[in-house]
Amino acid sequence: MKTKALAAVALALMAMVGCTLTQSELRKNGLLPTVGGHAGEDGRTFMPKRCALKFMIVTKPVSDTVMSNRLWTVVDDQVLPDATREALATNGLRTGVVTGELPPEVQEVLNAPPPNRIDPALVIIAGGENTLVEMGASSPSLDLIVNRDGKAVGKVYDQAKGCLRLTPNYEGENGVSLRIVPELHHGPVKRSWSTVQGTTFDPKQLTMKDGQTEETYRDLAAELNLHPGQVAVVGGRSDKPGSLGSFLFTANEVNSDRLLQRVLFIWASRAEDADGTPTPDAESALPPGLKPVDPPEMPDAPGE
C-alpha cells in the first residue's frame, strides 16, 4: 500500500510541474533533493564547495642552488603578516607564493623524465575540510627545540613523524585560501574515537581511529590566498638545526653524510566552475575510464 501511495504522489507531482521537465530541471526548481547538499529557504539546493589540491615534494641536496637559492628569489613571503613570517623563520620554516611562471630551472626539475620524475598527488576535498601531507620526516627519538613567543622550549619525542595539515576554502570570486599547519605525530599507535562529517541525510557519526598522539602547532599556521596562476611553496631553513623546520624539511641521505632538503609545491583551485562543471583538475582525479555525466532524464508518466 505504501508503494502505491508513493507512486501516486510522484505522478501527481509530475502532473503539477509538467511532463517536459527533466530531473536536472526538477532539482533547479527545488522539487528533488540532491544527496550531499542541503536546501535553502528558497528551495534551491546548495552543494558543498569542493577544492582541488595538487602538490609535489622535491628532494634535493641542501647544496643544490636551484632549490636553495634560485627558487626562493621568486617566492613572495610578504603575503604573510610580519609576526607570522618571523615566527616561521625562528622555527626554521618558510613559505610564500609564486605568481606566474616558475623559473625555468625549477620547472625543469618538476617536469623531469624518469628516473627523476616526480608524480604529483591530487586531492579533491570539501572547503573547510583538511588533508594531511606526510613530509617523510621520521625519527625513533627526536630532540626538538620550538621557539614560542621568544622562548625556546625543548622536548624529546619518541617515534616522531612530521606532517603538514592543509585546509582549503573558497576565497573571493575565483581564489582558494589555504591554511597550512605543521604537526608532529609521536608515540605508540593508539585506538580512539573521532567524528566524521555527515550529510543532510546522514549526520555526524563516530568512527574508530588508530593513530599516534598529534601535536599541532597552530601558532605557526600560515594562511595563503591562491588564485589561478599562483603556487604555494613551503620549505625549511637548513641553518636552523634542531628546529621544527629542520626536522620536517631536511634529512641525511641514506648511506651518506650528505644533507637533503625537501620543498613542497601546492597548487589550489576550485573543483567546479560556477555552473557546477568539474574543472580539469577535478576530472583528472576520476578513476580511469570514468567521466562526469548529467543525471539521466526522468521518464514520462504513463499515459503522457
Which short descriptors sum up this protein?
304 residues; alpha+beta; 2 domains; six-stranded antiparallel beta sheet; five-stranded antiparallel beta sheet
Q: Taking all residues together, what is the mean pLDDT?
A: 80
Number of extended strands: 13
Task: Indicate the proportion of strand residues.
Answer: 35-45%
Number of helices: 7
Whole-number total of structural domains:
2
Poorly predicted ranges? 9-40, 286-296
* Helix and strand element order: HHEEEHHEHEEEEEEEHEEH
In this structure, how is the largest beta sheet organized?
Answer: 6 strands, antiparallel
Span from first to last CA?
24 Å
Shape: globular
Return the structural class.
Answer: alpha+beta
Helix content: 10-25%
Roughly how many Å is the radius of gyration? 24 Å
Account of the 3D structure:
The structure is a single chain. The chain has two domains: 2-48, no CATH class; 50-270, no CATH class. The strands form three sheets. Strands 3, 4, 5, 11, 12 and 13 form a six-stranded antiparallel beta sheet that branches. By secondary structure, it is of the alpha+beta class. Helices cover 18% and strands 42% of the residues. The protein has helices at 2-17, 23-28, 65-70, 82-90, 104-110, 244-249, 280-284; strands spanning 38-39, 45-46, 50-61, 93-99, 121-126, 131-148, 151-171, 175-196, 205-216, 222-226, 230-236, 250-252, 259-270.
How would you summarize this macromolecular structure in one to three sentences?
The protein is 18% helix and 42% strand. The chain is an alpha+beta fold.
